[in-house]
Design goal:
Helix content is 52%, strand content 14%. It is built from ten helices and eight strands.
Length: 275
């Protein structure tokens, strides 16, 4: 199956988010919670850890005779290391005292867990293959394009002369607000381009810390391309129409020359909105 590893990686990320949710709720609570809540959260994570490790094992397996054992060990132990830290914090906290400190340190441990997890899964190779989305598969196409964004750490650049408002809600909703965003489009009309997205772009500009909406001349921009960190994908119709008709999607030229060409397009454009 094309891009199976990407799907497995995305599933692993999703399952981890569900698994650690009890602790996320504790640190996001408006008030500090009692120690008993932390003990219950620990029990929930321990209960779900084994099935999650099975997903990590599948992600680390490349056929009957190829298993990335070292990478699997690092990935599969992130919850164990986290729970060990939480157990120590609980034992150091007096009943109903120092709960604010416990909450703060738990939040710090969660951040470390996530940082290590993303670092470890990036060591497992995910080699993208070109893919054709059949007609009448917009939801499946959406999910597969989302897979390409699942590990973004630095930047998302999208080049589309017909950029529409759907892109913001569909693909930027869950993106970390510190990610570098560059949306490159044309002047457009009321329903696309700068004119079509100006209102929602103004809102995005205020929320993302490194955001630009860039207007270029139509002659400088034809094909639609999505750059996620240092990997560039090309697709036929705009992201908002992927899968409605037969759609090509997959990696394209990522050479130094190709990257420089995209950077040149950005450099030639007129910045309409910036954070």
């Amino acid at each position: 199956m094309a891009n199976l590893k990407s799907q497995q990686r995305n599933q692993l990320i999703l399952e981890l988010g569900i698994l650690i949710q009890p602790f996320v709720e504790l640190v996001e609570s408006s008030s500090s919670q009692p120690i008993s809540k932390y003990r219950i959260a620990s029990a929930k994570v321990q209960s779900g850890d084994s099935p999650w490790r099975n997903t990590a094992r599948s992600f680390s397996t490349f056929g009957d005779d190829v298993f990335m054992h070292s990478e699997y060990q690092k990935i599969s132990h992130v919850n164990e290391v986290f729970l060990r830290e939480i157990s120590a914090l609980i034992n150091q906290t007096e009943q109903n005292q120092d709960l604010d400190i416990l909450k703060s340190k738990c939040n710090d441990s969660l951040k470390i867990l996530k940082e290590n997890f993303y670092k470890y899964i990036s060591d497992v190779p995910v080699d993208w293959e070109p893919e054709i989305f059949p007609a009448n598969t917009p939801f499946t196409s959406y999910l597969k394009i989302k897979d390409s964004l699942s590990l973004v750490r630095e930047r998302i650049h999208y080049f589309d002369r017909y950029l529409k408002v759907e892109f913001f809600d569909t693909f930027l909703r869950d993106v970390n607000r510190s990610i570098e965003i560059r949306l490159v489009t044309t002047a457009g009309r009321q329903n696309y381009g700068v004119q079509g997205v100006q209102t929602i772009s103004e809102l995005a500009r205020q929320e993302f810390s490194n955001y630009q909406l860039i207007q270029v001349n139509p002659r400088d921009l034809h094909d639609r391309n999505l750059r996620v960190d240092n990997l560039t994908f090309t697709l036929g119709p705009g992201i908002d129409r992927a899968g409605l008709a037969l759609t090509n999607f997959g990696p394209t030229d990522n050479s130094v020359q190709a990257i420089a060409s995209f950077d040149e397009i950005i450099g030639l454009g007129n910045v309409i909105h910036r954070s």
